[in-house]
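Quick one - inputs below.
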Amino acid sequence: GNSVTQMEGPVTLSEEAFLTINCTYTATGYPSLFWYVQYPGEGLQLLLKATKADDKGSNKGFEATYRKETTSFHLEKGSVQVSDSAVYFCALLLTGGGNKLTFGTGTQLKVEL
Amino acid sequence: SAVISQKPSRDICQRGTSLTIQCQVDSQVTMMFWYRQQPGQSLTLIATANQGSEATYESGFVIDKFPISRPNLTFSTLTVSNMSPEDSSIYLCSVDAASGSSYNEQFFGPGTRLTVL
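Output:
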């Protein structure tokens, strides 16, 4: 079946530090890949996406590259801010499968001054 | 993009009662979904709400416990029936806003935070 594995949190960083949150996937077929962010007390927001191999999604300084050879979609940011503190979810979607998202378990990020 | 609202935003309910959650979208969408996010957990898909027909439920979820309505292309409801404390979760509505460059992109509502005592 399809699955998404994320690095466990919580991850605590100092402001301006480099961020990497690992995400790997297993899928039958060629999924689209997504990162969603959930700020405290809020719903999910789409952060970035990539729909095919070697695509790079980017938004708000975050980036992730769709690596088919390693089945990975790691999230990176060069310099985090306190306002980036949130839970980050990696997800995949296979078309033709009812357009249903499969989520990872989420990684909590806490950025301190 | 699609703007989604949910009502209520939160509620505290007694064991054995039922709660109906509403999801309203600002544009017509083909697919609507209901997810559950239990405390500290990831999202689990409950069902796909189909317009004009019965919802399609995922393994572990049944219509008697989570009846869903989808009367048109902009609105859906999820009812959590005969609630127990284990139903305490955030319930989220999402829509598939496939259109042009936003292929297969899903948007989520703000969620309904349910606490069952």
